[in-house]
What does this fold into?
Amino acid sequence: MGRSSHGLDFRKADPRHGVVKGLLDGYWALECPSIPSLPWGAADAGALGQFLRANPELATEIVAGCLQHRLLSEDHAPGERVHRWIGDLLRYAGGPLNRFKQPLRASPLSLEASLGTYRPGKPVAAPEPRESIRSQMGERWFDKMWKRSERGMVLSDLERDCLREEGLL
It folds into this structure.
């Protein structure tokens, strides 16, 4: 294993690479719906490979959860290239973050249960109607979503459901 005399890399490809790339495609479709496909280049593929090598036991389900939490977080600008942030993806393992990189909610387990399972290319599932989306997600999330709506920005299905629930849509 390793490199040949010509500089080619003969290491075995990580089987998670394609799966995580698919998760990233789905994440991008929700994060930046106005941009038709995930910008992907050598830097992005290399950064993903490095992330997977640094975390050899990491399950793709954990990556999917982190992407879901990043989608709901306030600490980043939509449209950032993957190679700029993939190395820090695990910071979202505990739940979404506010703009100061602090937990957005006190109870990430209830958030995870309310959102359902992330599936690439599918909208995030709305919570059960027992408790309002606004109260489950928190006031900061609602304020951010409401501002995006007022600016005419594209909203996720979850955000539109929340506005309908509040009688604002």
Summary: Residues 128 and 148 are 24 Å apart (CA to CA). DSSP finds eight helices and no strands in the chain. Residues 106-120, 124-130 have pLDDT under 50 and may be disordered. The chain has two domains: 16-124, 126-169.
